[in-house]
Amino acid sequence: MLLVLGLGDNVVDRYINTKTMYPGGNALNFAVYANILGIKASYLGVFGDDEAGKHVYQTSKSLGIEMNHCRFFQGENGYSEVKLVEGDRVFVGSNKGGVSAKHPLGLSKIDFSYINDFDIVHTSCFSFIENDLVDVRKYGKFISMDFSNRYTEDYLERCCKYLDCASISCSEMKDEDITQLMKNIISYGCKHIVIATRGSRGALLLVDGKFYEQSPCLVDAVDTMGAGDSFITAFLTGYINDMKYAVDFSDESGNKGITKIEEYKDLIVRANLYRAAIFSSSICSCDGAFGFGKSYRK
């Protein structure tokens, strides 16, 4: 069975037009979406002791996310402020990580031993994890990091050498600029996959040197929060699981099985891109990243 870990950020997304907060955050979303897809998922991050932190923690726990290695500190949980414009979420502010910025994870030997148990470890540029990436790389089997649209070439060069997969959000960029950036990310050391989400234009992928394009599954979105995170989660979990099966098959069948890995790899990529587009569109039918709204008072 595939085991995955969301490592790093959690927040509440505070919708200023309705005064409702929803659990979210890139690393936590990865764990929750994997759980929705029937995959055993865990989360390791930092929570504040305010109402927002309690809501995110209790909701995630109720969904079956394993969180035994999380940290808890006195102070304000991370939050972002959001408004909806015709179903599209627009970020308008944040507290820049709250307690997680003041108390980064600072992973220990026990944590690294824990990380070694997982098939995929997914983190983000919002997770204050940069100083730990060298050791996460030593212990993690497959490391994924989402840079959202908060990246510079220097930052990508600093982080990508530790990654198997890098994801970027680039809906405002031209395709030729996106493909060049994806090639740059590989040149910085990212080993296997680059995912570029483009909003309503769908996604571009670079998998072991080959480009793919996936059109979106267009729906009348209630809320686009989590659309990119859910796409990344569905693709990576499906792809890694299918490739893991193919490798297991080759172990049993020798060279014939190894040939089949190459024969079916392209099909595996395309099938999981389509699966990811369908799953992402379904997430756009709920409020927030995955629901569970709660009123807040500023």
UniProtKB/TrEMBL annotation:
GO terms for molecular function: kinase activity. It comes from the Bacteria. The keyword Kinase applies. InterPro entries: PfkB_Carbo_kinase, PfkB_dom, Ribokinase-like. Belongs to the carbohydrate kinase PfkB family. The keyword Phosphoprotein does not apply. SUPFAM superfamilies: Ribokinase-like. Residues 15-246 form the Carbohydrate kinase PfkB domain. Signal peptide: none annotated. Keywords: Kinase, Transferase. This is Fructoselysine 6-kinase.
